[in-house]
Amino acid sequence: MPRSKRDKKVSLTKTDRKGLAWKQRIIDDIRFCVEKYPNIFVFQVQNMRNNLLKDLRQEWKRNSRFIFGKNRIMQIGLGRTEAEEVETGIHKLSKRLNGQVGLLFTEKTKEEVLKWAENYWAVEYARSGFTATETVTLPAGPLEEFAHSMEPHLRSLGLPTKLEKGIVTIYSDYTVCEEGKVLTPEQARILKLLGKPMAKFRLTMKCSWTKADGFQLHVEDDVEEDENKATDSPMEEEEGDDADEDIDEE
């Protein structure tokens, strides 16, 4: 019997590479927002968490828009040089799109946004590579907050544990992390299991552009103001961009 043409193996992990259509959509969205909103900010993210950024987007959706995508694509949307810029002076924002940054388009005043950013933060669990802000030590004894089934997992993370009468028990004092030292993946997982957040999710407003006042720098930097230099072809593939994907979901 001949093999059916429908009998094909399809990998569920196979995904389509984001192409020109996706990039052009981001560029069009940015240019639409430049026309719609009077104030634009470049913000830098500390301890990035997608879920918290999405919460902010939901909270601000009535009169603002967050866009967080590939820096090169966002630069093209604003204009990378004075000749390319979509509004006078806006290419200076584009020059500050480096690292883990995004764009905030808003109807709120510059003063409102800066005051909010100064006071806003959210506690989150630290990830590997984070510098510990305190020393955490577990004394020998029972860990009754953990089910007995967790004991093998805790032991695999390096904790000196055993089961005593069905209770997870540490049989010697154990230092999870030390203040000022970089966390390993295992230490970060243990801190999360213990419910000890160390990181703070924050947004720092690097600079702004408003239709009323033009460009203003809020955090000093060493960006050179070369008005005519643009790098690379507008739509070529980026390697190693800090923002891997656009998460501006409506």
From TrEMBL:
SUPFAM superfamilies: Ribosomal protein L10-like. Its main location: cytoplasm. The keyword Cell membrane does not apply. One of its GO terms (biological process) is nuclear-transcribed mRNA catabolic process. It is found in: Cytoplasm; Nucleus, Nucleolus. InterPro entries: Mrt4, Ribosomal_uL10, Ribosomal_uL10-like_insert, Ribosomal_uL10-like_insert_sf, Ribosomal_uL10-like_sf, Ribosome_Assembly_uL10. Residues 234-250 have a biased composition (Acidic residues). Residues 218-250 are annotated as: Disordered. One of its GO terms (molecular function) is RNA binding. Keywords: Cytoplasm, Nucleus, Ribosome biogenesis. One of its GO terms (cellular component) is cytoplasm. Residues 126-195 form the Large ribosomal subunit protein uL10-like insertion domain. Belongs to the universal ribosomal protein uL10 family. Associates with the pre-60S ribosomal particle. Component of the ribosome assembly machinery. Nuclear paralog of the ribosomal protein P0, it binds pre-60S subunits at an early stage of assembly in the nucleolus, and is replaced by P0 in cytoplasmic pre-60S subunits and mature 80S ribosomes. This is Ribosome assembly factor mrt4. It comes from Drosophila hydei. The gene is LOC115483465.
